[in-house]
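ugh ok fine here u go
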Amino acid sequence: MTLPIDARRYFGLEQPARIRAQLDIHLSEHCFAPTPEEPEADWLASVATPAFRILARTGPRRSFLSIGTGCGLGAVEILGAEQVAVTDIFEDIVQAAALNFVANLAPGVTVPLTARTGDLVAPLADSGLRFDLVYENLPNTPVADAGQLARGQTVAGFLAPRAEEVPPLLKDRLLVLHYLALRQVRPLLNPGGAVLSTIGARIPLDSFAALAEAAGYRGRLLTYGWKKQAAPEEYIPGYIAMEREGLGPFHFYRADTLRAAFAGLAPEEAGAAALAIEQDLKPHSLTATEALAAHRAGEAVGHAVVALLSEAA
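structure:
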């Protein structure tokens, strides 16, 4: 399947310089399909791209790694990346990412790409590559059935349990893969390099400072915002299962509530006011069970999102 995307509208560009204006994105079995017709539900358009724009103000990020693929073209156009690497646990996703990257660069633009299959940054351990910026938007909810992942039924899940030691708070708040990625990627950062984590903020905001600190970084919220819950029937049940195990509650909201809370605020402005916005939202919070019921009653539901920038301490 190939999905056409208007790069100008999708990335908010007047005229792309390094990627094609009309993107043709090949989707494989395990790919999570973009929703260019509904930016509020699209992670790259509504969460990653605003964070890229903020980082671009301080200069280009020449070398870029995406753990989980998905945003190499945005890094080339917005961040000025001149070397890109991508990893994912699914071979078909890595192959699709490589195909999409090469096919959608503007004529005459060449950017070296390293695309490898494996867990987090393990495929790059012997590569000798170093990065100015590492991007990750990794799954939150653990699943016990490897077959479930293989069938592509939950790209928002990861195979559990992990053997690595993870601080209990981060484990309870479903930040396991984010923590492991931060720890593993540290040797691959150039001096002054950083990690950009975009994460669904269904948990308290103080979780993200704890995440960065536990992994040995200085963390700050680059942006705060919201998005509609993509594929609610597929993803909310994972959070319901975690709540039934005593974790959470995880905070969902009606989309109209979120839209009103963030009205008139740029993502960076909302980041500066994040704690106050979180307090204002609290009375309107829905548990995962309540959110799924609201969705089934015909209401649009969503959740807050953050872009966490973690810099070497």
